[in-house]
Structures are given as C-alpha cells and as structure tokens.
Design brief:
Elements lengths: L19 E6 L7 E5 L10 E5 L7 E2 L9 E6 L5 E9 L1 E8 L6 E2 L1 E3 L5 E6 L5 E14 L2 E18 L5 E6 L7 E2 L25 E2 L5 E6 L6 E8 L4 E7 L10 E9 L2 E8 L9 E6 L6 E2 L17
Parallel strand pairs: 9-12
Antiparallel strand pairs: 1-2, 2-3, 3-4, 5-6, 6-7, 7-8, 10-11, 11-12, 12-13, 14-16, 15-16, 16-17, 17-18, 19-20, 20-21, 21-22
Length: 313
C-alpha cells in the first residue's frame, strides 16, 4: 500500500492454510520482496524464507534444504546481496545470514541452553545486525556472537559483521528487568505468536532509522507492548538514550512491530496496534517520531508487520 494507506494490494497467494509473514523489501530500490511462509509444507507449518518480485510473482524458496525447522524474519542487506534471518535449524533459534540466492548460509550466533536469538535487523550501512535474545551476557567466540546466561527477559544486542560473515564485535544495547526487542503480544494463530512455530512468545521486529543513528523496538516496560527508540552511537556501540514514542506507547492497548520510513521527506514510524482501547482487531498506523500526525492506515481484517518504503503489510 501507499504511505497514506491507499492502493492496498495482496501480493502473495499461498494455498490454504499457508501463511505468509514478515515481509521485507530491499531498502531504497524495493527490487525484491523477502518473506517467511509455510506454503512449502501447509499443515506441517514449517516456515521457509521466500524471495519474490515486489508484486509477488516468481516466488522462490531459499531455505528449501532445511527441513523440520523454521526460517523466519528476513532482513535485507542495504545492497540486496544478503539476507539475515532467524532459524531453529540447530535446535534453538539463532541468527543466520545467507546470500540473496540462498547460498552460503552462515550462523552468526550461538546461544546457551534456554536461549533464543531472533528479530535480526541489518543496519543501513550493512556493517551491523541488531537482534533480540532472552539472555544477559554476550561475547565474540570463534567468529560468532556467543550469547549466554539465557532464559531471562529479552534484551537488544548489536553485532558487527564483516564481509566474510564473521562477527568482530558485540554489545548489549538494553538492560532491563522487562522484555525489549523481539517480544510483542501473544496473538495466537492469527498473529505473531505463530502457534505452529511454538515459540511461546509473541514476535516483534526491530527497525533502524535510515541514517543508522536510531533503533526502534518494542518494549514491555509497562503492562502492554509499546514502541521505544534508542539513540545509537556507532562509536561506542551503545544506546546513549532510549525513550518511548508519544502516541505509540500508550497504556491500555498494544503497540509493536515498528517500521522506520520516510513519508514526503519526513521520518515516521509505522506500527501495529489494537486501538481503540480494548480493541481486538490489529491494524497498521503511522506516526511522526515526535508523536504527532497519528494516522490509521488499515481497517479491514487484521493487519500486522508493516515493511517497505511504500509500506507493505
């Protein structure tokens, strides 16, 4: 759809009961659409990463070689040459990166017992990948981000990755007693919990500003999911400040799945919410980063996971 909510169009047509989720367009060019789908195994509901033209034509399964596992949450490198994703092909969920044709798939994280690393987001310059994990400690080991002291709340991490798919540095961006990053509300089979994936928690995305100086994420500091933004320093690999986004962090309903985009030259965040208060239908809204200009974009059915310069759902 357009950034004003007009011209909505369905671009994937899977065979029922298949689900197509986590859309991701190549930054700027929008030349290709990546998404996770269980259309290769409907009924078994194992998700793979697919790539198609932006209009949904010529879909190709990039992770068809992986069986009995889930490959979800694709994130494009800025030049469209690689895709980061989360997968449980090695039992626990880890962050992987592969070439855009599905070759050279490489794990970037190793989590300790009870750990899950999910929600990868490649930075606009391609040098870093933010992700979320339910762990407290992190270090570089054998060219990977080794995440330990797991099983607690989710936090946000960032790792520097070189052209050889080797992790050279890692850092923890949040440190709270509540969930930050990957966790959205548990929406059941119609939403982000993905009951077939059996994660036991809702999934939400991370999103970089176009200049890579800010990172939008979902926070559970209150009773519901809210959108927050951290000011990221590339010099120190740290969030210098973090604050909730006005009108995208209101109590009484859920706000999650932030997506950073520009609309007529103005930076805005698209997100999913069940407004009005007590609402059960999840729709996509947008807001300026200062909290002004709150606008509902979708109203038919349930709509989640905005993505793309022209917002895709």
């Amino acid at each position: 759809m357009d950034t004003d909510g007009n011209n909505q169009a369905q671009v994937t047509v899977g065979s029922a009961p298949a689900d197509d989720l986590f859309p991701s367009l190549v930054p700027d060019t929008r030349g290709k659409l990546a998404f996770a789908s269980d259309q290769a195994s409907p009924g078994l509901a194992f998700f793979d990463i697919f790539v198609a033209n932006p209009d949904g034509t010529l879909p190709s399964n990039l992770t068809v070689a992986q069986t009995d596992s889930h490959e979800i949450e694709p994130s494009w490198a800025p030049d469209g040459s690689q895709i980061a994703f989360a997968s449980n092909q090695s039992a626990s969920f880890e962050i992987f990166i592969m070439d855009a044709d599905g070759t050279d798939s490489t794990p970037l994280t190793t989590t300790a017992a009870g750990g899950k690393a999910v929600a990868p987001a490649i930075s606009p310059d391609g040098s870093r990948i933010a992700f979320s994990a339910n762990c407290d400690a992190i270090a570089v080991s054998s060219g990977k981000a080794s995440v330990s002291s797991c099983g607690s709340d989710f936090e946000i991490f960032v790792m520097a990755v070189n052209s050889s798919n080797t992790v050279t540095a890692v850092a923890k961006l949040t440190s709270n007693t509540t969930d930050d990053g990957a966790v959205g509300p548990d929406l059941g089979p119609a939403g982000l919990n993905l009951t077939p994936v059996n994660l036991g928690f809702g999934l939400s995305t991370l999103s970089w500003s176009r200049d890579g100086t800010k990172l939008a994420y979902t926070s559970h500091a209150g009773a519901s999911a809210d959108i927050s933004v951290c000011d990221f320093s590339a010099t120190t690999n740290a969030c210098t400040t973090a604050s909730p986004v006005p009108n995208a962090s209101d109590s009484g309903f859920e706000e999650f799945d932030p997506y950073w985009f520009t609309d007529a030259g103005v930076e805005k965040l698209a997100f999913t919410t069940n407004r009005p208060i007590g609402g059960t239908a999840y729709e996509i809204w947008k807001v300026k980063t200062d909290g002004s200009g709150l606008t509902q974009l979708t109203s038919l059915g349930a709509n989640v996971q905005p993505a793309g310069e022209e917002i895709r759902k």
